[in-house]
Amino acid sequence: MKLILTGYGAMNRRVAALAEDGGHDIVAVVTPSIDDRCPYDQYTVFDDKLPEADCIIDFSHPKLTQAMLESDVTLPMVIATTGEKDLLMDLMHKKAEHAPVFFSANMSYGVHIVTQLLEYITPLMDNYDIEMIEKHHNQKIDAPSGTLIKLLDAVKSSARPNAKEVYDRSQLSEKRKAEDIGISTIRGGTIVGEHEVLFAGIDEVISVKHTAQSKDIFASGALNVARKLTDKSNGFYTYNNLGV
Fold first, then answer.
1. Are residues 102 and 9 in the same domain?
2. What Å distances lie between residue 216 and 11, 18, 42, 121, 178, CA to CA?
3. Residue of 38, 49, 54, 91 with fewest CB within 10 Å of its CB?
4. Whether 140 is catalytic
5. Which residue stretches of the chain have pLDDT < 50?
6. 2 catalytic residue (yes or no)
7. CB neighbours of residue 216 within 10 Å
8. In this structure, are 183 and 122 located in the same domain?
9. pLDDT at 244
């Protein structure tokens, strides 16, 4: 494949390395400003000067993703940027009328499986309290993570539509309410990513947990999706309908 990368942060640097190992070509990188670390042709805007490519892979920043989605570019797009969820989701659905667009807050197929597990088991756990914990490295800016929000959405949509997220119990002086879902965020060191959902019942706890041991799982996931997306018609895709 000929690939364009949106952003050249840590994740897309891993995408580039794995892509080259797999015989693919990085034909351009779109960044807000020229990055001296980048060995590829760089562009600062999405316009008709971009080279021909089979797909765009976007691990970047919501502002850059927004610029891509609002441009006239109609290449297949694999989007993994989190933040500004409502705005970007609206723009992705509009772009999907003119291009194949795939989105996941986490490119790990394992996280997709965990999401499906939560959709299945949450309706069976009416009498259990739910707590959610996510851990990431000390350079991560957003909190809670896009992946935790993805898992939270799975819990709420399957069985807890009236759930109330509680982010800081130190601000409360009351017992836990049945509808509460506690959200805990940890930042430190070089933790790649860890997400855990606890179902706490009477005298027992059930835990569903995913641990990422390398950023490569996200990069390889994006490349696998890109391969499939290039054969798809215009539309909005996730792991649920891509046919992975």
1. yes
2. 8, 8, 23, 29, 38
3. 49
4. yes
5. none
6. no
7. 14
8. yes
9. 62
**Domain assignment of residue 184, given as a range:** 109-212
Check which CATH number belongs to the domain holding 69 and give it: 3.40.50.720
Two tokens at 124?
A: 């069976």
Using DSSP's 3-state secondary structure scheme, residue 207 falls into: strand
The predicted-structure confidence for 137-150, as pLDDT tens digits, reads as follows 998 888 898 889 98
Q: How far lies 2's CA from each of 10, 56, 195, 211, in Å? A: 20, 9, 33, 31
Among 136, 195, 210, 215, the active-site one is 136
pLDDT of the residue at 139:
87
Terminal Cα-to-Cα distance of the chain (whole angstroms): 18
pLDDT at position 21, please? Answer: 92
Number of residues that make up the chain? 244
Kindly state whether residues 92 and 182 are assigned to the same domain. Answer: no
The single residue of 85, 93, 137, 140 carrying the catalytic annotation is 140
